[in-house]
Amino acid sequence: MGPDGPFAVTFAEILSIVEFTFDQVEIDHRTIKFEIRLGKVVLTFDEVIKLFINSEEFKNQLTKTLVQVPFAGFFWEVRPIKKSETNSRFQFVVVNGRRLCDLRADPKRFEGYFEKDVPVASFLNLGKDAKLIVPSNQDANTNYAHLAAFLKTGNSEQINEFWRQVGL
Question: What is the pTM of this model?
Answer without folding.
Answer: 0.89
